[in-house]
Amino acid sequence: xxxxxxxxxxxxxxxxxxxxxxxxxxxxxxxxxxxxxxxxxxxxxxxxxxxxxxxxxxxxxxxxxxxxxxxxxxxxxxxxxxxxxxxxxxxxxxxxxxxxxxxxxxxxxxxxxxxxxxxxxxxxxxxxxxxxxxxxxxxxxxxxxxxxxxxxxxxxxxxxxxxxxxxxxxxxxxxxxxxxxxxxxxxxxxxxxxxxxxxxxxxxxxxxxxxxxxxxxxxxxxxxxxxxxxxxxxxxxxxxxxxxxxxxxxxxxxxxxxxxxxxxxxxxxxxxxxxxxxxxxxxxxxxxxxxxxxxxxxxxxxxxxxxxxxxxxxxxxxxxxxxxxxxxxxxxxxxxxxxxxxxxxxxxxxxxxxxxxxxxxxxxxxxxxxxxxxxxxxxxxxxxxxxxxxxxxxxxxxxxxxxxxxxxxxxxxxxxxxxxxxxxxxxxxxxxxxxxxxxxxxxxxxxxxxxxxxxxxxxxxxxxxxxxxxxxxxxxxxxxxxxxxxxxxxxxxxxxxxxxxxxxxxxxxxxxxxxxxxxxxxxxxxxxxxxxxxxxxxxxxxxxxxxxxxxxxxxxxxxxxxxxxxxxxxxxxxxxxxxxxxxxxxxxxxxxxxxxxxxxxxxxxxxxxxxxxxxxxxxxxxxxxxxxxxxxxxxxxxxxxxxxxxxxxxxxxxxxxxxxxxxxxxxxxxxxxxxxxxxxxxxxxxxxxxxxxxxxxxxxxxxxxxxxxxxxxxxxxxxxxxxxxxxxxxxxxxxxxxxxxxxxxxxxxxxxxxxxxxxxxxxxxxxxxxxxxxxxxxxxxxxxxxxxxxxxxxxxxxxxxxxxxxxxxxxxxxxxxxxxxxxxxxxxxxxxxxxxxxxxxxxxxxxxxxxxxxxxxxxxxxxxxxxxxxxxxxxxxxxxxxxxxxxxxxxxxxxxxxxxxxxxxxxxxxxxxxxxxxxxxxxxx
Length: 925
Fold this sequence. Notes:
Blueprint: H1 14-26, E1 33-36, E2 50-51, E3 63-66, E4 72-75, E5 86-90, E6 96-100, E7 111-114, E8 120-123, E9 127-134, E10 139-149, E11 153-157, E12 163-167, E13 174-177, E14 182-185, E15 197-200, E16 206-209, E17 212-213, E18 216-217, E19 220-224, E20 231-235, E21 244-247, E22 253-256, E23 268-272, E24 277-280, E25 293-296, E26 303-306, E27 309-310, E28 313-314, E29 317-322, E30 327-333, E31 342-345, E32 351-354, E33 357-358, E34 361-362, E35 366-369, E36 373-376, E37 380-381, E38 386-392, E39 400-409, E40 415-417, E41 426-429, E42 433-441, E43 450-460, E44 463-473, E45 478-483, E46 487-489, E47 494-501, E48 507-517, E49 520-530, E50 532-539, E51 552-560, E52 569-588, E53 591-592, E54 597-606, E55 626-631, E56 637-640, E57 658-664, H2 668-673, E58 675-682, E59 699-703, E60 708-712, E61 717-718, E62 724-731, E63 742-747, E64 750-756, E65 758-759, E66 766-773, E67 781-786, E68 795-800, E69 802-803, E70 808-813, E71 817-818, E72 822-830, E73 848-851, E74 854-858, E75 885-894, E76 899-907, E77 916-924
Parallel strand pairs: 37-44, 46-52, 53-59, 61-69, 71-77
Antiparallel strand pairs: 1-44, 2-35, 3-4, 4-5, 5-6, 7-8, 8-9, 9-10, 11-12, 12-13, 13-14, 15-16, 16-19, 17-18, 19-20, 21-22, 22-23, 23-24, 25-26, 26-29, 27-28, 29-30, 31-32, 32-35, 33-34, 36-38, 38-42, 39-40, 39-41, 39-43, 43-44, 45-47, 47-50, 48-49, 48-51, 51-52, 52-54, 54-57, 55-56, 55-58, ...
């Protein structure tokens, strides 16, 4: 369809247009509004509409939104029929309209709004559901809704970031949550009304005014609390529909124009939060108008009222409402008279009017209304901060003072003149500019207040510049959110705690707290006055309806929408999602034939690695229920799972493990196979799904049965050369036979003998035997060993023994008469009884020569001579060793007095050898 364009007479020359565009690109900070006489164009190029580039598609009833990147999105409207096409107004690198992706449905007279995450929400206008535009992707996403809304739909962003959708001939109130991209119906008892207005109040409630109902045009209004759905009924000063409603800086709401059902209106109705009533103003619009556009410039506080229709004829005039004096001033004319246009305030306060319907139908004409501006250094201040204001009048020749008037509006909407708090009652303009100027120091008592600063500068005796600047005072809260269990089972409720704190003093916590995890959101209305607010909630249920075996790290997010006293806040933490299908394993030790062996069935939540996460895993997450273990070809055995009774926390956090204890005794069949394999199952519980079996069956080698070897009544001492009776008893599980019945005896590690075991006739699993074993010299430890054989394992026993000292005999060799010096020979006979005593063995004591008990001489300790042939008699050898060992020696170089001498030659003995001595008498001559 060809696009109808306005005639050239409606367009200004391109040079002024380029100048206006340049001002837009410079992005002036605030907007001035003029009271009294307007500044003439020679003094300031303001309040003169200028034509812009044309829309690519003529359209009326379109909706326009300034996006986060300051471009303007223009959607839908009507040409010959409702449109789905979309255009974007941009001014860099040149001012123009460009095509964008079309909506999924055609819409006209619909609602639109910028969402806090930068997307644009579209609703109503003859189509069900809503659509969201993603500027970075140039794509639209539709969200289903059961509500079909026609023209007149309103879309209002709430203070907590959610979006309220109302009217369009539907009475349901929908709320869209951008955090979860979900739509919900707000339970409420609003009066059904069409062609009404919806205005967000400074306390977060909404004023819904006028419109038409079954009885015609309404003179009623309602205040809706979006947190609770509560409704408060009000009465307008007169019936009104197709009007505009604008929230002013001071908290009041201006209703302008419209129709009472019989005629068009030029009256103005003001709602005051102080009295919660409407009052008809004395000032009126210069012309009655309906279906017009009213825009509050947040850079100046004044309301521009433009376009619309009167007596069914499009209007081109514009007017300004001055809230400081509740007066109306003319504000120039549109480039083309039209109604049902879309309007938007740009970042620098410039007003952009788009399309509409003129005498010939839908129009593609557009215009801008540039303005000078002022702005506070920040829109929201905090206690102990200083509010600063700066800006430009746009009148370069204007120098001198600009006066300040300060009004404080408290949380209840009461206005208080506060000039006494001004740091200075005026600022200084230099070439029309006000540098950053301090206005007021803010304290804790200002929390919840809005300040409106009115600035006035005199251009001439009949010309005054007047503008309002608004800023709020709030606390910056801190929000902390935690998961109370450290982890959550997929598809199960999540226990959370969220805590809001301010600056330590009592403050009103109210509004909405949203908790989101796993794609599920819980919205909670809060109300408390305290130094902090904490709430514990259960969110049900993340990953519900999805693969409940899923696990991983998810985020637990909390957002607080704020209120009059507190700014919005957000917080997040890591949330572990464990699988609803737990992990299962079976652990066991070595398996021995006929021996009960412990098995442990371990069942634990399956989730991600927790290393490095500061989590305490609640034991309540441990699996409960019953476990079953079954050996191959065996009978299943069941046991209840048991787990920790306290939170699990360590340097490397772990999941709370549950376990069930079992026992298995391998049989001969297992032993013959060499191994036994096991399977296991888990019954499941309220949190976790059953597990039918192990993915891989664990198997264990089966060794022989254990044996026990005992030395029965072992000898404490033995006599060398005399066989010792040694008795050994072997025990083993009575279900296993015996193959090898020999027990070897080691004496200090040397083979000493063998004991043949004979089964005990009193029962199975016991065998005993006795053998006479000739023990080696100086045996200290006897070791009994049964070697592994057949189905039995080896075993050992040991006892300590001591040898009785070996007997000795002393003989001497000397003449009866000797002369000095002389020698006495001796022989020490060791009675070894045919047992080897190793050569070089020390006898432990020296040989003594005593006379009458007096030591005459002592010889060194003698040793057993080497080289005696033969081996030890071990019970099986026929080798016979000598029964005694002779140790010869002599006492030499004796010099004694002449005469008779009686000597004793003595071997004192030791622990291994007995003492012995001999007497000898000699005469020295």
